[in-house]
Fold this protein.
Amino acid sequence: MHEFSVAEAIVKKTIEIADKKDAKSVEKIKIQKGNLAHINNEQLVFCLDALKENSKLLENVEIEIETTEVTIKCNCGYEGSIEEKNHLNDIIMALKCPDCGKTDPEIEKGREITIENIEIKK
């Protein structure tokens, strides 16, 4: 399960940051996830919930996941978002420039998973 290894990395980094800030607890973790990150939100939350039980710092943490849109850059000069579909396969099939129709644009944004913010209590 790919989500478990991502959740482990999020928990490890969150605890590392909280320890550096002398936090008593982590109140909230805000995660940004691109639509092409191949991560299921429900599975990620399930894994984070399972892992947080091993840490006093994270026992009451709220997890927020925000999905970011896919943006592309095309040789024709277009830079921006594409029309997004409901399913990953549809998104991949829609990876074409809305200006010129080319199907090989560079993906600028949409594959990343980042910790956007961590709220701590001292």
The first helix runs from residue 2 to 20. The first strand starts at residue 25 and ends at 34.
